Amino acid sequence: MRRRRTRPSRATDPFIDLLFNALLGFTFLFLVSVMFINPEARKGRVDLKAEYIISVTWPDQLADDIDLWVQDPIGETVSYLRKDAGWLHLDRDDRGEINDTVMIDGREVVYPINQEVVTIRGVIPGEYIVNLYYYNATRPQPVEALVKVEKVNPTLKTVFVQRLALNRQDDERTVIRFTLDQRGEIAEMNQLQKRLTPFELEFEPE
Predict the structure, then answer these.
(1) I need a labelling partner for 175 at 20 to 30 A (CA). Which of 77, 139, 149, 196 fits?
(2) Are the C-beta atoms of 164 and 151 separated by less than 8 Å?
(3) At the top level of CATH, which class does the domain 52-190 belong to?
(4) Which of 180, 94, 204 is nearest to 129 (CA)?
(5) Considering the entire predicted model, what is its pTM?
(6) Domain ranges for the chain
(7) Which of 203, 70, 66, 198 is nearest to 136 (CA)?
(8) CB 67 within 8 Å of CB 100
(9) CB-count exposure of residue 80 (10 Å: 0-12, 13-18, 19+)
């Protein structure tokens, strides 16, 4: 009768066990540190998704302050007074020369571009109204502004662009009123004037 041969069990090296457990411990600590590192920075992440971008620019290095006011179909209005209103968001509030200075590597650098930007981050079918308000004038001459409406999805496309002059401080102009359909496409445009500011100003004849 043949005896069945059995393999002798190999004794586990305690040093290898120690290294393996140490590796597991370091891996766990690394994962925990990644999850909790700089929580303030994680909170500050911005969702840049947008359906439309509305922008106004005026001559660089000009101290004058021009404001964008945009109203959606349900009456929500975004401006420097309220930077988030429903799906509307004021991404950049330019106050002329007041906020044109930025700190880079400990030095003050002048950022001369005058621009305000409003994004529409979701589609509500209906009419959107885009107004310009001449908040602060530093000279008696009119200032020329360029207004653009750009559709972002699925590709960036300019759907409206116009230059217009604001003649004096407190001027308010409806630049464009556009209607979005259920698919988020522009179905209609007009330029009927409507005041959006609460300042009880009168429109000046064209």
Answers:
(1) 139
(2) no
(3) mainly beta
(4) 180
(5) 0.69
(6) 13-45, 52-190
(7) 66
(8) no
(9) middle
Residues 132 and 115: their CA atoms lie apart, in Å, by 12
Token reading at 194: 């409507």
Question: Would you state the structure tokens that stand for residue 5, as one six-digit string?
Answer: 């041969």
Distance, first Cα to last Cα, the chain: 116
| pLDDT tens digits, one per residue of 90-138 | 998 877 555 555 556 777 666 668 899 999 999 999 999 999 999 998 8
Q: What's at 92, amino acid-wise?
A: R
User: Is residue 57 pLDDT above 50, yes or no?
Assistant: yes
Structure tokens at 59: 């001559």
pLDDT for residue 177 is more than 50: yes
Q: In three state form, how does the secondary structure of the chain look?
A: CCCCCCCCCCCCCHHHHHHHHHHHHHHHHHHHHHHHCCHHHHHCCCCCCCCEEEEEEECCCCCCEEEEEEECCCCCEEECCECEECCEEEEECCCCCCCCEEEECCEEEECCCEEEEEEECCCCCEEEEEEEEEEECCCCCCEEEEEEEEECCCCCEEEEEEEEEECCCCCEEEEEEEEECCCCCEEEEECCCCCCCCCCCCCCCC
Neighbours of 149 (CB within 10 A): 24
- Section 8-32 average pLDDT: 61
Pairing mode of beta strands 101-104, 52-58: unpaired
